[in-house]
Fold:
Amino acid sequence: MRIVVLAGGIGGARFLRGLKAAAPDAEVTVIGNTGDDIHLFGLKVCPDLDTVMYTLGGGINEDQGWGRSDESFTVKEELAAYGVGPEWFGLGDRDFATHIVRTQMLAAGYPLSAVTEALCARWQPGVRLIPMSDDRVETHVAVEVEGERKAVHFQEYWVRLRASVEAEAVVPVGAEQAKPAPGVLEALAEADVILFPPSNPVVSIGTILAVPGIREGIAEAGVPVVGLSPIVGGAPVRGMADKVLAAVGVESTAAAVAEHYGSGLLDGWLVDTADADSVERVQSAGIRCRAVPLMMTDVQTAAEMARAALALAEEVRA
Ligand code: GDP
Ligand code: CA
Structure:
């Protein structure tokens, strides 16, 4: 079975670990979000691609959900001693090596998709990880800080401001001109199932869908498309997804996120058992819906979620 997953960082990565356990023989292709990418200290950092790569490759900081395990911060301290920031973005020493290799390869002319493949040769994530595009796409957030309206990089909004101010708009800058990376449309065309893990609907999956051709590729694949809600009991399980959902006029409920994707895109949607009362609303929007436990407390619970998603996909197909 060929499965394609559109993934952001933590939610996507933890789900993928469960999917691999649930379907060990499946050929899994991951289309990763690159809208969060940022240049720091002269280096190209791809937080979501790295979170997927480290999580599936066994190098993730489990408690944090991002960054390397057994990490130290000597380089960061030395940079701070030079007064070189930003101090709000935590890059560890081991993580730095990844960004150095990536930046070096990009400077030598390799596209990001080839660089990602090279990095994965070390980590062996057990999936084919492809960035959504080799072209630069950068998510910006329009905010008002101290009476001044401005657009800030997504990382500045998320990490430095901790989404503490209202997001007035979220813009994937460059997406309209971007092309899907090599392999993305082919993977969609050959897929048996397409899954949306519980990733951020706006700045992770929304950004991937903003690359022209990807949304169409999903529709044209003609296979079941099933998503899992990142919103449980009216709030994001982790992080501040409610802030960016508000920016696109979507309430933070499992049903509203399903309606936001819409029946033109989604065939099936899983909500948490806490949201069982929203199943009917989702179904009346033309999306087949089930309520199952959606908390990824460990690999087993994530695997159960993956099994439920694949079962719902089979129901859709039948
Ligand atoms: P990011 O790029 O690191 O923010 O990660 P993603 O976009 O892949 O996923 C973020 C989303 O995952 C957040 O909106 C969380 O609510 C959601 N999430 C994290 N852990 C869980 C979980 O255990 N269950 C569910 N249903 N959603 C989760
Ligand atoms: Ca992200």
Observations:
- The pocket of calcium ion (ligand 2) is lined by residues 8-9, 33, 36, 47-48, 204 (CB under 6 Å).
- The chain has one domain: 2-134+176-317.
- The chain is about 40% helix and 20% strand.
- The chain has a mean pLDDT of 97.
